[in-house]
């Protein structure tokens, strides 16, 4: 499509604070004051930020439930020469938040798109987690679809480095138990309330994390970082153990006997029934 670039508006992807309002950049404030319109994931939430910085630019909602329809409306406004600032509730738009669809549509229409960088929970958590930042992957929230979630977990088993996930507090325990069963008792770092007063970083084995979370009430969205060590030594750490020693290892890590049976079977690549018949009968 041939388009007169000078007649088009620009889409600005504007990162906003993930907690501490002082993390808003000068450029982000100026951009949101100068654009014609702000597209916000939750206008009520963003209004608090705008009021803090005395930004009076009009807003429209742009969230997962109206993303496709609203994208067309915003593209039309951009082709008419209006500039738009896209913001999510926190962090960088498009990272586990709405934005992908609008960016794609803008690029299809040759509409200029630029980034006003700033806070990002995944990268911020990575650099304070104590885990390796040399090689990492970001999966966002695990899929609620069972088949897709299993594909994500299978992908993790074949990787080496640090994997970064997001998780809601009410699902944290369930997710940790799934990760333990699928990946073994690897090192995990749990980061929450980034840049806020109660910012915390916890690190240890997954089994220990499960025990720790049982003694407290998780609050605030978590960033879960996994240390993936899919090399030969990590995969066969148990190779000189008897089955009894293998079982004792996982019991000492806080697993139940039933959970340990599943983990041992996965470690050794044998049918679960084979281990079950030895320990559960």
TrEMBL record:
One of its GO terms (molecular function) is rRNA (cytosine-2'-O-)-methyltransferase activity. PROSITE patterns: RSMI. It catalyses: cytidine(1402) in 16S rRNA + S-adenosyl-L-methionine = 2'-O-methylcytidine(1402) in 16S rRNA + S-adenosyl-L-homocysteine + H(+). Residues 10-208 form the Tetrapyrrole methylase domain. It is an enzyme of class 2 (transferase). Its main location: cytoplasm. It is found in: Cytoplasm. It comes from the Bacteria. Its EC number is 2.1.1.198. Keywords: Cytoplasm, Methyltransferase, rRNA processing, S-adenosyl-L-methionine, Transferase. Gene3D superfamilies: Cobalt-precorrin-4 Transmethylase, Domain 1, Methyltransferase, Cobalt-precorrin-4 Transmethylase, Domain 2. CDD domains: RsmI. InterPro entries: 4pyrrol_Mease, 4pyrrol_Methylase_sf, 4pyrrole_Mease_sub1, 4pyrrole_Mease_sub2, rRNA_ssu_MeTfrase_I, SAM_MeTrfase_RsmI_CS. GO terms for cellular component: cytoplasm. Belongs to the methyltransferase superfamily. RsmI family. Catalyzes the 2'-O-methylation of the ribose of cytidine 1402 (C1402) in 16S rRNA. This is Ribosomal RNA small subunit methyltransferase I.
